[in-house]
Design goal:
The chain has 16 helices and ten strands. The chain has 466 residues and is α+β, with helices and mostly antiparallel strands. It has three domains: 2-84, no CATH class; 88-311, Rhopdopsin 7-helix transmembrane proteins (Up-down Bundle), CATH 1.20.1070; 324-465, Reverse transcriptase/Diguanylate cyclase domain (Alpha-Beta Plaits). The strands form three sheets. The protein has a four-stranded antiparallel beta sheet with strand order 8-9-7-10, with helices on both faces. Strand 2 and strand 3 (26-31) form a beta hairpin. Helix 5 packs antiparallel against helix 6 (152-165). The termini are far apart.
Length: 466
């Protein structure tokens, strides 16, 4: 184990990826194209002389400049690995942060979609995708993966792809806070998508245009940031978009760090530009996450208010039962079902007399007492509605026997309430079952139950007069 840790190891970084590594004149490694990646870590066989020979490198060319900026680190395996870990620990920490926060955003977006949060879930989903791509780019752009994989070319490709794709979900998120600039932002998305396709074609066909594509990406980034800052601050001055403040602060930080990182990259690509760019992304993500969180809280409050209003729209305030609107909604649903159903119409007797002689509070108490009788009688088998001042309806599905049994329980409950009441509690009942009707639609069944209720009311009145 100790011998393996002390094996001679080389870490080579070069923007010119055509070279050979020789030990005592023998070739031990060859890089021949951009597919090989910029970083290489490998063990060396025992020997006395180490040579790195760069190929096809003409004096005064861009290749010579790239070669002069190359870096070679030589040492023991454990020493090189520790150096890589120490210099790239930031990438591990940031990627872990991005993984947790990105997945949290995607899960939140999924839950929001199920809870009908409108288009807000799309913004949170875009934010999650942006955070995850940022984590992938920072991780693959660092040297940390050399500790677990020597496929530097594949890692480099993933790094480029994630960097080019990074701006697509970011622009989609920005559409949510600058909806009036949707057309402009969608055009920018199309440009980024085109560059992403060109990058893949360049890799597949082994074309020598990677540097041109990188410059195009950096130029497009600069234009994008400038346009968003310009239009964002214009909207802020109008004072119509409260969420823009945090987003624009994030874009300013992102712009400063991006420009600084790009400047470092073109001055000397061997310098650590990635941490500078990552710092801008980190602050940007925090501000975007705060913006998204604030919008989610606002939407939750709005949904809660809407739920309260919806409940009130279908609820009788006095009794807590469903109101006429709720009953009409149920009849619309019943039309779509083939299941048999029935209605029990209930009309409270002598409500006007109680109001006139004992006062409206007693009349309200009478209404509430009858409502409680209906709820106890129907239990969980039916739905109770107050559809008028003294009129109620109970709807049931199942069987005719269940409808008749419910009507009997209503009479029993009302009789029990009347026995212990300071004012008379009574009501007329009428019921109808859909399968007994020639046209079993809700309106016809309801009309039949209503007619039966009025017949019962006349019978009760005649009985009292007799």
């Amino acid at each position: 184990m100790d011998a393996a840790r002390d094996e001679p190891t080389i870490l080579l970084r070069s923007a010119w990826q055509k070279y050979q590594v020789l030990v005592d004149g023998n070739v031990v490694y060859t890089a021949s194209s951009e597919r090989n990646g910029a970083f290489h870590l490998f063990r060396l066989p025992p020997g006395q002389e180490l040579t790195v020979r760069f190929l096809d490198c003409a004096p005064g060319s861009d290749a010579e400049s790239a070669v002069l900026q190359s870096q070679v680190y030589f040492g023991s395996r454990s020493g090189i690995q520790w150096m890589i870990l120490r210099e790239n620990l930031y990438a591990v920490l940031f990627s872990g942060f991005a993984l947790v926060l990105g997945i949290a955003c995607l899960l939140a977006a999924y839950c929001m979609q199920r809870q009908h949060f409108g288009n807000l879930y799309g913004s949170v989903c875009s934010l999650g995708a942006y955070i995850l791509l940022a984590g992938v780019w920072v991780l693959t752009d660092s040297k940390i993966l050399l500790l677990v994989s020597q496929k530097a070319g594949l890692v480099g490709l993933i790094s480029y792809l994630s960097f080019y794709a990074l701006h697509l979900p970011l622009l989609q998120f920005t559409i949510g806070v600058l909806p009036e600039k949707r057309r402009m932002l969608e055009i920018l998305q199309a440009f980024y998508s085109g560059l992403l396709l060109l990058l893949m074609a360049n890799f597949i066909l082994s074309l020598p245009y990677l540097n041109v594509l990188v410059m195009a990406e950096h130029l497009l980034m600069t234009v994008t940031i400038a346009l968003i800052l310009h239009h964002g601050f214009r909207e802020m001055r109008r004072g119509k978009n409260k969420a823009l403040g945090r987003v624009m602060a994030g874009y300013v930080l992102f712009a400063v760090c991006s420009i600084l990182a790009i400047t470092i990259y073109y001055l000397d690509s061997s310098l650590p530009y990635s941490p500078v760019y990552m710092l801008g992304i980190f602050g940007f993500i925090l501000l975007l996450a705060e913006t998204a969180g604030q919008r989610v809280l606002e939407q939750i409050n709005e949904n809660a208010n809407m739920a309260v209003y919806a409940k009130l729209a279908y609820r009788d305030v006095l009794t807590g039962l469903g109101n006429r609107a709720a009953f009409v909604r149920e009849t619309q649903e019943t039309k779509q079902s083939a299941a048999p159903f029935g209605y029990i119409m209930v009309d409270v007797n002598d409500l006007k007399k109680v109001n006139d002689t004992l006062g409206h509070p007693k009349g309200d108490a009478l209404i509430n007492r009858v409502a409680q009788c209906l709820q106890r009688a129907a239990a969980e088998k039916g739905n109770c509605y107050r559809i008028g001042g003294d009129e109620f309806v109970v709807s049931l599905n199942g069987s005719r026997e269940a409808l008749l049994a419910c009507a009997d329980r209503i009479r029993e409950e009302i009789a029990a309430a009347d026995a212990g009441s300071e004012f008379p509690v009574s009501a007329a009942l009428g019921l109808a079952w859909s399968e007994d009707q020639p046209d079993p639609i809700p309106a016809q069944v309801f009309r039949q139950a209503d007619d039966a209720m009025y017949a019962d009311k006349k019978r009760m009145k005649a009985s009292r007069e007799a």
